[in-house]
Amino acid sequence: MPHTKRKRRRRFSNKQKLSSSSSSLSELNESVDSVDSTESSVSVLSVRVYKGFLSDRDVERIAAAVKNTIKTDFTIDILSEVQATVRKVFDEFSEVVVLKQEINTLKSENENLRLSIDELEQYGRRNAVRISGIPEKTGEDTDAIVRDVANKMGVDIHDVDISRSHRSGKPGQSRPRQILVKFVRYNTKRKLLISRRVMKSVPSLNNVFINDDLTKRRQELYRKARDLWKDRKITKTWTWDGKIFLTDKTNKKFRIDRECDLDPFRTPRSMELTTTTYAAALSGCT
Predict the structure, then answer these.
(1) E strands of the chain, at which residues?
(2) Looking at residue 85, what is its pLDDT?
(3) Which of 6, 80, 146, 148 has the most neighbouring CB atoms within 10 Å?
(4) What is the pTM of this model?
């Protein structure tokens, strides 16, 4: 009998414990069911579960530590992304700089190549001149016109000295076309150009001009130099052996190779230059 009673008491004690545990589990389940997905509800649940183990101060410290950890990790991630982006931009910028340098080099080489070709073309015209201002006539003999002009200038030219002569350009223009003359020898052309200074003293040659046979590029450059002369920004411009020259208002002489060489004379300014100094020294033209 006594042994039986003890077993009943033990069974009753186990039931009592199970009932107490079930009651606690029910309360916990009710708390979990009432928890919302928001951060505030999680905090409430955390306080209820850990209330017996952690103080409010401990919870605040844990929260601060978590916040700092998250903030540090986030900052490191952002900094890494920024560094990667900056590195990528810098690499792309470096490539752009290299490409720009290559483009500038190619431009410079291309310009030098164009100048070299122009120089060769001009050399092929070294024995030729253009005579402008001679009225046109039907059935005219351009060789005879050239000889007549040269004789008035005091230069003896014969048929054997002329390789070829003809009018240049399309007929029917408002002004007489130029006569293009190619001489057999360079010295004949040189004598004719040197004698141009006497043309002003010959009435019949007052409106006649003799110049080198220039390439298309140099013709345009010489035209712009003459525009400066017409605007009275320079005192004189002329050609010699395919090269273009001018003098400024102080009678200093300059050679013009490129259009940018003309820039200083378009906006005159006071400068001390020697007679052999190129206009490129003024404008920084290269």
Answers:
(1) 128-132, 162-168, 178-183, 209-212, 236-240, 243-247, 253-256
(2) 81
(3) 146
(4) 0.58
